[in-house]
Specification:
It is a single chain. The chain has about 950 residues and is mainly α. The chain is elongated, with a radius of gyration of 35 Å. It starts with a helix and ends with a helix.
């Protein structure tokens, strides 16, 4: 016995000197064997307690497991309930780490039962903490039950006056909550462990844990501060040589790097973590690390290595002994396949993962995989299957009484993305029942915000506005100012959609003030972009320019000028500058964006082309030189990286078509838009949002190409589908209906077009009384009324819309310029001087914005030439009409209705200048082409023929 006692004394003395312990490990093993043979329960128990921390820290699980089995057996033989409770609790924790969930839970339950029969407070606290950790991971309703156990354990540690254990319990409780209470709890725990003098092994270990947890909290709002805490926690763990804790910190830091878009850094961190875990032989922990590494490699587009890594992770787990954990790794492998675009294999892997998790009897985790399966089915275009799986997952949540709020929340978000809004609202309602608004006001506010998004999508704007307001209040109580600003911006957008422009602008400005109060220099790119996007939508272009100029330099310094989100902000600022007629500044910034993009990775812009932000850049800058090449790079990169049926490829192709459309390459846009729409319909169905958007794009291309009959068929179908799905007063349905009217007007069916436009305009006045759509529809109606001789009403409407556009969007905005063109067109006959003045200004703006050779510039030029003709400025009118006619003929074709209208003006101007031969040749050619293109019954052909006959009669 003396020899055993000596080994215990040595172990205690050298507990933190791992080299000394390793040198004596043979003697320690001998001592353990001797105690076992002598049935010395006390000696073996003490030896385990002396070695436990060291064996755990260095990952020597096999020796520790064997030692604990013997300790439990001897303590049970000796009926030492206090010692047995402590040993069972320790073995429960080890078994949990090794993936033996059922055995771990049985040990933990027995440990707590024994401790309640008379053990000291610390022993009961230890048992409760182990039980809580296992219940949290394996039991339905686990997080709530775990927190109750941890709170009881904390009371035990307070009675026993154990500050290190108190700190650990507080750390666990704080980690399960969110908001300011969580951070306050972690700070309290940090103060406790820091006050222990001299610092013990446990105090230092817990300090490392707490610093890591604080870093994860801070990373959400103060990225640099959070990462500094993570690094400090890692340093503490390195000093202690706590290898498992080091690996854990490395994995957490890798996760942060992935979220920040620094995938290569994440790969390096995970490789280091895997190296540590492989030396420790910690198979379950290592398999999880390898799965994380596989996902990071997939994010770097190293798909083959990612799949090999995932397969390596699977080899470390037994599907029979640990079906639940095997399902976890299968899920991670499926994520890699999905990222690669191998959706068929990913779907099979998700199904297999769900089956294994079901065998592991963890319903909450099974539902997580089913939700991922539904998302993959949706990406593959199997919308019906996706909805069925998502509903099945929701049913499992209900039937099994799962009380994990985060899982319900994920289900709600997926159902929302699938258009299952009623089910999404039900899921969000369940989350609100599970989450305490007092304990977790921040998360409660997040869920309220998501619920408001669904209500807004359903057109229930009043309820949505109330929900956004409540969400903002809860987020403010959660002391997350940045997240509160995001909700306020969404509230502003909803107020605008409801027609409350004054309230919307007030809320947006209030959100901007909060952003500034919090320090714009600390704002994240996401927060700045949300503010810019809302201001642009509200027409607050000057304010957007001020904010963009105020934040962009600092963001470039903090995140790098080639960071994806920073480039998107630069793109949005360029758009706002463009809208305020600061075209030179807008083009310079656009050039910077494209240059940074191309040089971002390998000189081809491939890295950003694989990010969603690339499309935002291309669309914002679609009419700017360089946008077309960039859009083509996006599409090409996506096609190289993903199968042709992947939704990401659809998105890249749509961007390419939009840029071609905005640069007047209509044939090129059509060659992309038509197969894109058909592919979306085949893959996803005609009624899904992606397909409707693809057909919207195709219709617009066809309209610009003057194929009005094909365009009207598409718009009629889209209007019908959207009215059925969203309701007849939904803005998208009304816009599709207005598109039908535009096509009918172009086809010469003026009466029907006016009837539709009047109906849509009235609906928009009720549901969106100050939006851009109302100005667009009203402008089309004003021109139609003017064409049918209803000049007084036409002019009143046009002037009203111009005033609205200038007050809502600014006098130099594109919306105001378009409204001014409408006024100029409808007043040409009655007030040609005013008309010519407005149109000259609009022509100058359009030429500076789009260039002189652009369809939009030619459209304004035609209207101005006609006004000049009315003013008797025949030479100027002839010169402008000839120039526009020649340019339009090359750009959009000699038979385009806009070109032919200009040709008529060329003929009329020639007649007024006495150039009869030119008049006759141009007039005859124009009428012949118009009769072919429009038909002899089209009002514009009839009008042109009457004008030219009148001019001809003047000659004779």
């Amino acid at each position: 016995m003396a020899n055993i006692a000596g080994e215990i004394v040595f172990a205690r003395a050298h507990q933190h000197d791992f080299k000394a312990l390793l040198a004596k490990s043979g003697d320690l093993s001998t001592a353990a064997e001797a105690a076992w043979q002598a049935r010395d329960a006390d000696g073996l128990h003490e030896l385990w307690r002396a070695l436990d921390d060291w064996l755990t820290a260095t990952g020597q699980w096999t020796w520790l497991a064997a030692l604990l089995d013997r300790v439990v057996a001897l303590d049970r033989e000796a009926a030492k309930s206090d010692q047995l409770s402590a040993a069972l609790a320790a073995r429960a924790g080890l078994r949990s780490e090794m993936g033996e969930a059922h055995e771990a839970l049985a040990d933990a339950d027995e440990a707590v039962s024994l401790a309640r029969t008379g053990a000291d407070a610390k022993t009961l606290g230890d048992a409760l903490m182990q039980q809580a950790a296992i219940v949290d991971e394996t039991t339905n309703g686990g997080p709530r039950l775990a927190m109750e156990m941890e709170q009881e354990a904390l009371r035990c540690y307070e009675l026993a006056n154990e500050p290190a254990e108190q700190a650990y319990a507080i750390y666990r409780i704080a980690g399960a909550s969110s908001g300011p209470d969580s951070e306050r709890g972690l700070l309290r725990a940090l103060t406790l462990v820091s006050s222990i003098r001299p610092s013990t092994f446990l105090a230092r270990r817990y300090r490392g844990y707490i610093l890591t947890a604080l870093g994860i909290r801070r990373i959400q709002t103060k990225k640099r501060d959070g990462f500094r805490l993570l690094e400090e926690g890692l340093r503490v763990k390195r000093e202690m040589g706590d290898m498992r804790a080091i690996a854990h910190s490395l994995k957490l830091m890798a996760q942060v790097e992935v979220e920040a878009g620094h995938e290569s850094s994440a790969v390096a961190l995970l490789r280091e973590a895997d190296g540590i875990l492989s030396r420790l032989g910690a198979d379950p922990a290592r398999s999880r690390c390898l799965s994380s590494l596989a996902r990071a490699l997939a994010a770097c587009r190293a798909f083959q290595e990612a799949l090999e890594t995932a397969e390596q992770a699977l080899e470390l787990v037994s599907p029979e002994a640990e079906p639940g954990f095997y399902g976890v790794v299968l899920h991670d492998r499926a994520d890699v396949l999905r990222a690669q675009g191998q959706l068929g294999e990913a779907i099979d892997a998700y199904r297999s993962a769900a089956e294994h998790k079901a065998r592991g009897d963890n319903r909450a985790d099974e539902v997580v995989t089913l939700l991922a399966l539904a998302a993959a089915e949706d990406e593959a275009g199997h919308r019906a299957e996706a909805v069925a799986v998502a509903r099945g997952a929701l049913a499992k949540l209900r039937d099994n009484g799962v009380e994990r709020a985060t899982t319900w929340h994920s289900a709600g978000r997926l159902l929302e993305s699938l258009g299952e809004r009623a089910e999404a609202l039900s899921a969000y309602g369940r989350v609100l029942e599970l989450v305490s608004p007092e304990a977790e006001p921040g998360f409660y506010g997040v869920v309220l915000h998501d619920r408001a998004d669904v209500l807004r999508a359903q057109g229930q704007l009043g309820e949505a506005i109330d929900a956004y307001r409540s969400a903002a209040e809860h987020k403010a109580r959660g002391d997350n100012r940045a997240d509160e600003v995001v909700t306020l911006l969404a509230l502003a957008a909803a107020e605008d959609e409801a027609g409350h422009r004054a309230e919307a602008v007030a809320v947006a400005r209030g959100a901007l003030a909060k952003l500034r109060d919090n320090g714009v220099e600390r704002a994240t790119p996401g927060e700045v972009y949300a503010a810019l996007d809302t201001l642009i939508e509200l027409g607050e272009f000057a304010t957007a320019v001020t904010l963009g100029r105020e934040t962009l330099p600092g963001l470039r310094r903090r995140y790098g000028s080639d960071e994806a989100e920073v480039l998107v902000i630069a793109s949005a600022l360029s758009y706002a500058l463009d809208q305020t007629a600061q075209f030179r500044s807008a083009r310079r910034l656009s050039a910077d964006v494209f240059r940074e993009t191309r040089g971002r990775a390998d000189g081809s812009g491939i890295r950003i082309a694989l990010l969603p932000e690339g499309e935002a850049i291309a669309r914002n800058l679609s009419h700017v030189p360089g946008a077309r090449e960039f859009a083509e790079a996006i599409a090409a990169a996506r096609i190289r990286a993903y199968p042709a049926t992947h939704s990401i490829v659809y998105s890249g192709n749509a961007t390419q078509a939009i840029v071609r459309l905005d640069t007047c390459d209509y044939r090129g846009a059509l060659d992309i838009a038509r197969p894109l729409a058909r592919s979306c319909q085949r893959a996803m169905g005609r009624s899904v949002a992606e397909t409707l958007s693809a057909y919207d794009l195709l219709s617009l291309v066809l309209f610009r190409m003057a194929d009005y009959r094909a365009a009207v068929r598409i718009d009629e179908a889209n209007a019908h589908i959207r009215s059925r799905l969203l309701g007849r007063f939904a803005i998208p349905a009304l816009v599709s209906k207005a598109g039908v009217a535009s096509c009918l007007f172009a086809l010469g069916r003026y009466r029907r077009a006016i009837a539709i436009e009047e109906e849509v305009l009235q609906d928009l006045r009720t549901h969106a009384p100050s939006g851009e759509d109302l100005i667009w529809v009203g402008g089309n109606l004003a021109i139609a009324l003017s064409e049918t001789g209803q000049r007084e009403r036409s002019e009143e409407l046009a002037v009203e819309l111009l005033d609205l556009a200038r007050s809502s969007y600014g006098p130099l905005s594109t919306v105001a310029t378009d409204a001014a063109v409408t006024v100029g067109q409808v007043m040409t006959e009655t007030r040609p001087e005013l008309s010519a003045g407005l149109l000259r200004q609009a022509l100058d703006t359009s030429a500076r914005r789009y260039g002189t050779q652009h369809h939009e510039t030619y459209r304004v030029g035609v209207a101005l030439a006609y006004a000049m003709l009315k003013l008797g400025q025949y030479d100027d009118a002839a010169h402008l009409a000839s120039r526009v006619s020649a340019g339009a003929s090359k750009l959009i074709g000699p038979d385009h209705p806009d070109t032919l209208r200009c040709r008529v003006l060329v003929a009329l101007a020639a007649r007024e200048r006495g150039r009869i031969a030119q008049f006759e040749d141009v007039a005859a050619d124009a009428l012949t082409r118009m009769s072919t293109v429009l038909g002899i019954r089209h009002p514009r052909y009839v009008e042109a023929k009457a004008q030219l006959r009148s001019a001809h009669s003047l000659r004779t």
